[in-house]
Amino acid sequence: MKEERTIAYKDLIEKINQHEKVIAQLVEIIAATNRQVTDIIIKQKKREK
User: Fold this and answer.
1) How many domains is the chain built from?
2) Which structural domain, as residue segments, surrounds residue 13?
3) Best exposed site among 1, 4, 9, 14 by fewest CB in 10 Å?
């Protein structure tokens, strides 16, 4: 019984680590997208002048 809990605990830790990596990747994608949007807005404002 204790061994099963240990295995389940290790599995949960592994899943959490995988989720953290995915979240970090998503944050990087969002940051890159925000930079691109900002660049587009700046270019558009320059054209309007």
Assistant:
1) 1
2) 1-49
3) 1
